[in-house]
Write a structure and sequence with these properties.
Blueprint lengths: L6 H5 L3 H11 L3 E5 L7 H9 L3 E6 L7 H4 L5 E4 L6 H14 L11 E3 L6 H11 L6 H8 L1 H10 L7 E4 L5 H8 L3 E5 L9 E3 L2 H16 L1 E3 L5 E3 L3 H5 L4 H4 L4 E5 L4 E10 L2 E12 L2
Helix pairs in contact: 5-6, 6-7, 7-8
The chain binds adenosine-5'-diphosphate and magnesium ion (MG).
Adenosine-5'-diphosphate binds next to strand 6 and strand 10.
Organism: Symbiodinium necroappetens
Keywords: ATP-binding, Ligase, Nucleotide-binding
Protein name: CARNS1 protein
Amino acid sequence: MLRRIPSEALSHAGPEEQELRCKLLRGATIVFFSAGYPRKKFIYRKAAKMGVKAVIIDTPDSWAKSLVEEQVIAKFIPVDMGMDAESVFNSALAAIKELSADEATGPADGICTFLEQSLEMASRLAEATGLPGPKPEAVDIARNKHLTRKVMADAGLPSIANMLIENESQLEEAARKVGFPSVLKPVGGFASLGVQKVNNEAELLSVYREVVSVLRGLVVSEGSALRSSAAPDERTNGVDLDKVIDTTVMLEEYLDGDEVDIDIVMSNGEARYITVSDNGPTH
Ligand SMILES: Nc1ncnc2c1ncn2[C@@H]1O[C@H](COP(=O)(O)OP(=O)(O)O)[C@@H](O)[C@H]1O
Ligand SMILES: [Mg+2]
């Protein structure tokens, strides 16, 4: 249904267009790739209230499966997120295609996620099913902090000194190129995970080792969530950690002063919604 409406009619601001958007959502089937934390339940409640038939794809033991009985979502699709990314993608795609034959849902009208680490997968699923969504190449750039800086610099936008670090032998060069104080961070991180300030060259090696070990201490349920796990044996889950966890980090210039978040929702190359929030000074 959503596919048949011209995008201009969907994107204009204004009360009538807003009413149209709400009407269209009523009865629409929206797939959420991974459920997020239990605290995200309010989003599914809100979606249900708006008449959305929500479908959640997540690990078989996810808290969200009970939302079906609670009549908050229309369907829960269990997918083993411990598999490699390609298998997760193929299972999810097959299940999304099968929705067409499911009376409780009907075919998917949209695929989304609000988990940063699921963006790559969600964008690829949307592309494969012909549903709207950000291009996977754009998502890959946005999800890789080093690539983001490179694309910005290539576009002639202001950026800061930075260097990708794939192993210890590159630390000296990074110190020379970036200087101190600087910030070491995983290129694929989120929620400030593993982000550390480095005050001088003497600290660099120990901070580097610490950040890499934090990254290795996490089990990636590929395509979905990162989880800490207690026992080292359990941690590996039979998975080759080096294949699953990106331990690539980058060093970049430390910026002091106030930090401001600017969040923009883009559609067809235009900004549709912008918020600016003050985060206070960096630490
Ligand atoms: N170059 C930097 N200079 C100063 N502070 C930084 C810098 N990079 C990151 N930080 C601090 O660390 C936090 C997390 O870093 P960020 O790059 O936003 O990673 P994430 O994607 O995990 O949020 C930022 O909100 C900021 O406070
Ligand atoms: Mg951030």
